[in-house]
Amino acid sequence: MFFASDNTSGVAPQVMAALTRANAGYAKSYGADALMTRVRARIRDLFQAPEAEVHLVATGTAANALALALVTPPWAAVFAHEAAHINTDECGAPEFYTAGAKIVGIPGADGKLTPQGLGTALERIGEAGVHGVQRGCLSLTNVTEAGTVYTPAEIAALTALAKARGLPCHLDGARFANALVATGASPAEMTWKAGIDVLSFGGTKNGCMGVEAVVLFDPAKAWEFELRRKRAGHLFSKHRFLSAQFDAYLEGDLWLTLAAQANAMGQSLVQGLARVPGASLRHPAPANMLFPWLAPGTNARAAARGAVYYAMEDQGREYARFVASWSTTQEDVDQLIAALIP
Ligand SMILES: Cc1ncc(COP(=O)(O)O)c(C=O)c1O
User: Fold this and answer.
1) What structural domains does the chain harbor?
2) How many A from CA of 91 to the centre of ligand 1?
3) For position 277, what pLDDT does the model report?
4) pTM for the complete prediction?
């Protein structure tokens, strides 16, 4: 009953097998390996973006922080939801790598920015002349930190506001595959066709060991990204092991198959909650992450029965965060639901 995060799960067997295969013999280092050539080609193909540049790093924090640094001057604002991972869970890495850009956290129901909320922030920030930060970029997250999803149309409405101010747009896709499965959108529809310029394309949470791809739809700054990655200490010398993971992840649509399982188990949990007295969803939960309100005492009872997840409270009311992963089974879900029922 491990529902604390999708990164409590292991590595998909296909990815592990690819790592073992990659271990044979020798390969060029620092990203010059043949597998990286294939990963780049696969991503260009998948996104219908023949010009896109692709760089691999080992953590989502590195992907986000380096991507944001590429598109944001030190004296500028990164507009994001107030609950965005970049704002709450990266220990200031975006601020550090941008050399001081300010993250402007914007409220919005269910973890999502609205055009009104973003519009207000875009009007308010950047008007103080030399005394205030300038407008820098927009950063969205899909699946959001509240477990909800943006459709491509919703993303396009937000990026249009940013673009009207000349701002580049970043998407934190730590759970990009889950967002695609939940919406039925294609990779291109969810990104460059909706105004996204740079994507953090997650692998780790969805069955890789530790790899995320930074996809630059405009390759103009690709060399600068390479320099930033190296300078930040995020260029792996035995890079083939990052490439091997992403290559296996994309082979035969494994990444979508894994996300489909995670989302199916997320939806099975949503259905199971109907049998838990006093449970109701705090936010819509179309993917693999859900936040149900729970009756008093439920979290303690489930913990005593061995369920592992984030138990939380809001104004004295209990709730939980459950995340299903590629390796979650129906049996795991049934056990968790049983542990929640008095
Ligand atoms: C929305 C989001 N972005 C990025 C990350 C990546 O973080 P990490 O640096 O732990 O790989 C996470 C992980 O929890 C996340 O939930």
Assistant:
1) 13-252 (3.40.640.10), 255-340 (3.90.1150.10)
2) 12
3) 96
4) 0.98
